[in-house]
Please model this.
Amino acid sequence: MFTQPQLNSTRILIIGSEGNIGAPLTAHLRALGYDVLGFDLRPGWREGYLTGDITNPIDLISAFDWGPQVVFLLAATVGRMVCEQAASLSVSTNVAGVNNVLQLCKRANAKCVFFSSSEVYGPHCDPMDEARSIPQPNNRYALTKWLGEQLVEYEVRTSGLRGVTLRPCMVYDEHETVGEHRSAMIRFVSNLARGRPIQVHRGSARSWMHISDAVRAIEGAIRLEEYSVINIGHPEVTPMAGLAELIRSELNASPELVVTTDLPPKMTLIKRPTLDRQRTLLGIEPMVGILEGVRRVCSVHARAPRQPELAWDLVERRQAPHKVNGSDGRHSEFVERRAAGGRIPSIARSDD
Model:
């Protein structure tokens, strides 16, 4: 299922290799000559990839038998609203699952690069300083990521685990997954490109880092010898109203589609990370500014076909026997009904 380590190559296990950061990171590290094994919950069967769930430790055994020297732990239940709704899933994945990986890292003597989130700082840290700020998470996603950080730090301090914690701040990619659970950049672009309204939170601002810069910074963590917590981000902080206008102008969308509202609960108004450690420890200065980044994202989504905006009500779910790849399984059948009026535009909120 995967290639054996090459002579003198660094073996890297990426847990969460199919995600919005994991997939570009996997490609980037392979291009640099690293021997990379991907691992993710997403089903797949190919060279250099294993399927499994970090909440089930036995799934991880084959990956660690491969003998990784560095483990990037990206797998998580992600998103403020998702983790509020799926409370047990967020805790089991982001806390218990992290603990499973850390225990195996210790047994394999592998360094763990843990992906946390800028969300851990909470709403009152401006700037978000990894050396001085005291995180005060204000949503379950942030809380579980903070607890994951504490597990890493505990194992480093008490068990000799080699580790690094990264706190990415608003990483975006023109090819990332589109959905209402995603961050504002991709949702603003995808919705405005299709003539749908967006919400901009009054007074909010963010530091946005393009994935091409993020993977360079992440790769730098491989060479760190001492444990550190490091913000990953861009020094340019952009008001969300300004970002919305850049996107609207680039797509030639109607100004009426941009709606200004107050900040909802459990969100952070301004994300302004300090980046001294990114510069000094990882040796990275971002190269893609917000103007270039917006153009890249818009160029991809402006070419997407406009689909009729149909609203559907889920009215019934039935479990029925069904043959899947020759084996007996259970198939979820959905009966859907079109809502009255047929077209109900959703509003993309400025969430991260």
